[in-house]
Amino acid sequence: MSQDLLALFRETGALLDGHFVLRSGLHSRQYFQCAILLQHTDIAAQVCGELADKLRDFDCDTVISPALGGIIVGQEVGHSLGKRHIFVEKDDGKLVLRRGFQISPDEKFILVEDVVTRGGRVQETIDIVRALGAIVSAVGVIVDRSGETKPDFGCPFVSLVEMNVENFARDNLPPDLANIPAVKPGSK
Fold first, then answer.
1. What's the number of CA atoms in the CB half-sphere (13 Å) around residue 135?
2. DSSP secondary-structure letter at 59?
3. Cβ(8)–Cβ(15) below 8 Å
4. What is the distance between the alpha carbons of residues 73 and 125, in angstroms, rounded to a whole number?
5. Which residues, including other chains, have CB under 8 Å from residue 93's CB and lie 6 or more apart?
6. How does pLDDT run across 46-94, given as a tens digit for each residue?
7. Which H helix or E strand runs over 139?
8. Cβ(63)–Cβ(74) below 8 Å
9. What are the pLDDT digits (tens) for 75-87?
10. Which helix (H) or strand (E) holds 125?
11. ω into 37 cis (within 30 of 0)
12. How many CB atoms lie within 10 A of CB 32?
């Protein structure tokens, strides 16, 4: 699936080349704009169905995702697994459970997201679930671009594609990136 998925990213214009500031604060030459890929409902169903298949054997009552990028992924994975989907969203700069969504103690969750570099939003979502006495059985993402710094979420972590994409701290940019204006195309 990984080569086919990369081809889909390229065909839909969802794999961007340039100078990007990631949500993690790191800089990169490549950016996976999953919203461009997932705007095509047939592709969203196909890709998220593949992710759901990799998550199907994990114990799950509910699928949860961080907004904004994870909402489509969560809805499609939840649909494929026949489970409800809820999401957390930003309020005053941090993720919170809102909109009347409820988490019960001992409820089992699969957490899904579109792209992970450092995994900060995934970890923040896990912390919310665990603080309410529930369990995260597994984490699934479309693109894992964490490379050698793979996050440890304390549960299985699966992806459709693993990319070893170079990331740079703002104060350690290579000359080619330093000469290109940076853009931040993702979530604020």
1. 10
2. -
3. no
4. 15
5. none
6. 999 999 999 999 999 999 999 988 999 999 999 999 999 999 999 998 9
7. strand 135-144
8. yes
9. 999 999 999 999 9
10. helix 120-131
11. no
12. 27
Which positions ≥6 away from 87 have C-beta within 8 Å? 64, 65, 66, 67, 70, 71, 74, 101
Calpha distance 24→111 (Å, rounded): 19
Token duo for residue 35: 């919203």
Residue that is written with structure tokens 């594609």 in the block: 161
The radius of gyration of the chain from alpha carbons, rounded to an integer in Å, stands at 16
pLDDT at residue 188 greater than cutoff 80:
no
Helix (H) / strand (E) element for 116: namely strand 108-116
Which tokens belong to 182? Answer: 């940076």
Length of the chain: 188
Nearest to 70, CA basis, from 48, 100, 53, 55: 48
> pTM score > 0.85 for this model?
yes
Give the bridge partners for 97, in sequence order. 88
Distance CA 58, CA 62 (A): 11
